[in-house]
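Final report, Chapter 2: Outcomes

The project's central promise was a pipeline that accepts a single protein chain and returns its three-dimensional structure in a standardized token representation, suitable for archiving and comparison. That pipeline is now operational. To close this chapter, we reproduce one record exactly as it appears in the project archive, with the input sequence first and the structure output second.
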Amino acid sequence: MGNEYELNELVRSNIRKYNINGGVYESLRPKVQDQLYKIEYYIQSYIQEQIELVSKIKASKLSLAGVITASELQRSTVYNNADTLKKYIEERINDIESQDILSIRKITKQKEDIEFLKQYLENLELRLVQEEINENKIMELESQYSFISKCNIELQKEAFQLRQQNNILTKEITALKKNNIISLKTKNNGN
């Protein structure tokens, strides 16, 4: 439980924590300090009793051997009457355990459920983060695709224009070749 100094330090700490009297223990009247000490002494005694009860509860478990010993029966008597005595003890133990009088299994189940939910939430958070990363990647890829598509369209237009210019130039070259050939023939025929 602690000595007087430790209890006074605990009271002092709680006065600051709860902001009682502006958090200043020393300015309290000695009588009030003594009353606070008595209150804390009782609370610490109560906590100690609770800890001891929990230890006793954890240590006490109904078992066939324990019931036989506590009932001052011989093991051989119980095992010789297995259909009656042994079965009765085992069934009563099962009944009492299933009633979960102290809610021990309920608390254990709740702890397991809480752990499961924590794990589930962690996994869900990870999936959400991954989903957000994927959405960002998709948006980036869509943006890149859009840019590439626009570039492709522009390049197709440019290629089309270049083919048209090429066709025009090809026709002009062909026309020039015909004119040159004709004019050369005319000049050669005229000589």
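Archive annotation: The chain has six helices and no strands.
This record, like all others produced under the grant, will remain available to the consortium after the project formally closes.
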